[in-house]
Design goal:
Layout lengths: L5 H18 L4 H6 L22 E12 L2 E2 L5 E8 L2 E5 L18 E6 L4 E4 L10 E5 L5 E5 L3 H45 L3 H15 L4 H6 L12 H8 L5 H13 L13 H13 L13 H13 L11 H8 L4 H13 L3 H19 L1 H4 L3 H12 L9 H17 L1 H4 L4
Antiparallel strand pairs: 1-2, 1-3, 1-8, 3-4, 4-5, 6-7, 7-8
Helix pairs in contact: 3-4, 7-9, 7-12, 8-9, 10-11, 14-15
Length: 427
């Protein structure tokens, strides 16, 4: 088996590492720190040769901090990392992959695939992370990753091979441009000759076709042309609303309509969890089908719909209460005078971006209707606030005050539920 099948190689080595760690726990660091490099050309990966890209594989810690220009919350995780053909692939640990009818314990799933062409790599500044040995990788499409490993020699080796790979890709790119220029000169001469015989048009078509085939379009350009559909789950609220030309995501509205039509009297409507496998199936359907119908028989279980709605809200890169407003809402809930507290809360809600404000208003109005049926569904203001507080409101960086924050998060949601009419009163 070679690195021509990086997914298979990653799975085999990952399983090998896992078995070694299971039976030889005292060698855990030795196994991960000495993962060998591989090269399809048979050359040492430490020595770059023109026309041969470097290859390497090993365990690293990583987090994605920017996605196409949008800042993300740091979420460090261990990843089996494979460098092959100028592509850096971070794989999920098979044990952490979501369960479902098609999941298998021995599958290794690529989490991020990074094209290093046009990228930059540097040692991260201290304000980027408190961890040591952190690399900052920026891609040409505006995404950024932090890569880290405790052992100095390992992370230094990764730094060298990634820098060499990026440099090699840039050299190859310029070489291709020079070849294109040479080909353009030849094409112009051929075009002059063929113009005398009436073949100029065919020459231009061949040139354009060759250039088109040689230049692979970027992922962003493919998305802009509509060939790849962006997901609904995990998408920034403003991006999703802009794409749908609305201020409230369609999936949120569909879930709310379904719940209010046939679920308001269901016991523990948002407190009881639905079947995770069915929720994941609904998520996949929402990501790939614009015409999702929640009245379809397969979504009959109302806890599947409420579970999918909560999952959608949890997976938003930035919560419904934006990060920049978190401590402002915390300060508002601490005000001792109740009237001033409500007034300040109203001002904060009114100053939210329109998609956040409108989605929040639709969601809280729906939760008020759920609470009105509390005798049947046993959902009170307090229990609803406990369910939705940490989901709707969280700091960008977790701190030691997480327990205290959770109390305030619940209190903020509870206050807005109690004072809904006042907080969302038209100006």
């Amino acid at each position: 088996m070679t690195l021509s099948d990086p997914g298979a190689v990653a799975l085999q080595i990952w399983n090998t590492v896992s078995i070694l760690q299971l039976f030889f726990p005292s060698h855990r660091r030795h196994v991960s720190d000495n993962t060998s490099d591989a090269s399809s050309s048979g050359n040492s990966p430490e020595t770059p040769h023109h026309g041969h890209l470097l290859e390497k594989a090993g365990i690293l810690n990583k987090t994605k901090v920017v996605d196409n220009g949008k800042k993300l919350r740091k979420n460090w995780s261990q990843s089996w990392t494979v460098l092959h053909g100028g592509i850096l692939t971070f794989h999920k640990d098979p044990k952490s992959a979501p369960s479902g009818p098609s999941s298998k314990s021995n599958q290794i799933v690529p989490e991020y695939t990074v094209d290093l062409r046009g990228g930059t790599l540097m040692w991260a500044a201290k304000d980027k992370s408190s961890k040591k040995n952190v690399l900052e990788l920026k891609t040409r499409n505006g995404s950024e990753y932090l890569i880290q490993y405790d052992t100095d020699s390992i992370i230094t080796d990764w730094h060298k091979i990634l820098v060499d790979t990026i440099r090699q890709l840039d050299q190859d790119h310029f070489s291709e441009e020079d070849e294109d220029d040479g080909e353009n000169d030849k094409d112009r001469k051929r075009s002059l000759r063929s113009s005398q015989s009436g073949d100029a048009d065919q020459g231009r078509v061949r040139t354009k076709l060759r250039k088109f085939l040689q230049r692979r379009p970027t992922l962003q350009s493919v998305k802009e042309k509509g060939y790849i559909k962006d997901a609904v789950f995990g998408c920034h609220l403003d991006t999703l609303c802009h794409r749908e030309n609305t201020t409230v995501p369609r999936f949120v509205e569909k879930c709310i309509r379904a719940v209010e039509r046939r679920g308001l009297d269901v016991d523990g409507i948002y407190r009881v969890s639905g079947n995770l496998a069915v929720i994941q199936r609904l998520r996949h359907k929402a990501d790939h089908d614009d015409n999702l119908d929640l009245e379809d028989g397969q979504w009959e279980e109302i806890h599947v719909i409420t579970g999918a709605l909560k999952l959608f809200l949890r997976e938003m890169p930035e919560p419904l209460f934006p990060f920049s407003f978190f401590y402002k809402f915390i300060a508002a809930i601490k005000i001792s005078d109740y009237g001033q507290k409500v007034s300040y809360m109203q001002d904060l809600v009114r100053s939210l971006p329109l998609p956040n404000h409108n989605t929040m208003e639709v969601l809280f109005r729906h939760l008020r209707r759920v609470i009105e049926h509390g005798e049947a569904n046993r959902m009170s203001v307090q229990s609803t606030a406990i369910v939705f507080g940490p989901t709707l409101l969280r700091p960008q960086t977790e701190s030691a005050n997480i327990t205290v924050h959770m109390v305030f998060q619940n209190q903020i949601v509870e206050l807005i539920l109690n004072e809904f009419e006042e907080v969302f009163k038209p100006r």
